[in-house]
Amino acid sequence: METKYSVFVCESCTLSFSTTAGTDVIDITRPVAEKVAESGIAEGQALVFTPGSTAALTTIEYESGVVRDLIEAIERIAPKDMDYRHDARWGDGNGYAHVRSALLGPSLTVPITNGRLALGTWQQIVLIDFDNRPRKRQVVVQVSGLKSR
Amino acid sequence: METKYSVFVCESCTLSFSTTAGTDVIDITRPVAEKVAESGIAEGQALVFTPGSTAALTTIEYESGVVRDLIEAIERIAPKDMDYRHDARWGDGNGYAHVRSALLGPSLTVPITNGRLALGTWQQIVLIDFDNRPRKRQVVVQVSGLKSR
Amino acid sequence: METKYSVFVCESCTLSFSTTAGTDVIDITRPVAEKVAESGIAEGQALVFTPGSTAALTTIEYESGVVRDLIEAIERIAPKDMDYRHDARWGDGNGYAHVRSALLGPSLTVPITNGRLALGTWQQIVLIDFDNRPRKRQVVVQVSGLKSR
Q: Residue B77 is part of a domain; what is its CATH number?
């Protein structure tokens, strides 16, 4: 007789994305969904995190119009061409990027239900890199939860 | 002799809320707290997530004054009556709702300690629906953590 | 022969911080990192949560310039010297603090990988207290995940 039981798993990996200067919004849903599928987790969560202080994570309908609208809203909140104390002290010109990142936040958690990310049909996970130079940007993806055995 | 031990549980359900057109702020604390109580989890977390790109989750003291203040602050950040590229392309008139949702975020995690949500006394979990038409809005509630046996 | 296996642990504690009136930004990375180290968790997450409706959590490079820049950006979004309905009703003068807290959010989750918080080098966890009077502010830190035995 076979015994079916659930085990808790928790696994992390680091994804890497090449970004351009200026506010770059990248759809990272597919690689995150692949990690979920590989893990075999039926019920749990995907935690996505950017280890850095000039990027952020959120979800959006990834079509170029609304992505542009989001960038413009962020530009109104923390304009690039303002005087920032950070720049006066450190001269790296990305004070605006630090402020934007702190406002939007570095962390996103999406439930996994029935083995899949519980995203809406028109909802994608995006990495937003605000920095003023091209970066090799790291994103930590941690999947955790119950897997049937 | 009885043996007392803890097991990890992770359970999801989907709550459904009828929302009105315009920015609708709904206190969903009670149904979330009920799921926590039903789960029997002593130590863990409640992850609340809206699968959609025109709504968001946060916490607030749920009294009509500050709820109105929040709506007005959001209106300053991403005004309803602006030109959005999303609307120019797709004509559904809810570009502002997409931008607001991306800024506030679709996900909220609240710790469960001693079998209860670790909310402050004057702190409620709210679903904010920004869409420009009444919706039947889904919210995924996932409770996970340790349960005594 | 020794058997090596992993167990799931989930532990909470409450940290306490004395804050000043006005927007006070406090670096709480060290006490959170200490809880992670004490837990022995190799792979998991640290959930940081403020039970209250006039504070928020995020990450930032904790240097005085950019901290000041963030405070000024928040002041543009929800100015202190505006009329808030909350204040008209309740007279406690901290309507702005409630709005800011709802916009930034009370919750932050940071992955634990290889036994450590997966923060960037220049990325600190900060508690932001917006309230208009000094507070004894509580922060719930919950660490969960797998520990080798």
A: 2.60.120.460
Residues of the domain holding C76? 5-148
**Rg of chain A in Å (alpha carbons):** 18
Q: How many residues does chain A have?
A: 149
**ipTM of this predicted structure:** 0.95
Q: Into how many domains does chain B fold?
A: 1
Which residues of chain C are within 8 Å of residue A11 when distances are taken between CB atoms? 43
Chain B residue at shortest CA distance from A125: B102
Per-residue pLDDT reduced to its tens digit, A7-64: 999 999 999 999 998 899 999 999 999 999 999 999 999 999 999 999 999 999 999 9
* pTM confidence score: 0.96
Contact C103 B145 (CB under 8 A): no
What residues have CB less than 8 Å from B35, skipping those under 6 apart?
B11, B13, B46, B141, B143
Q: At what angle do helices A64-77 and C64-77 cross, to 10 degrees?
A: 110
Q: How many CB atoms lie within 10 A of CB A38?
A: 11
Contact B129, B23 (CB under 8 A): yes
Total residue count of chain B as it appears in this document: 149
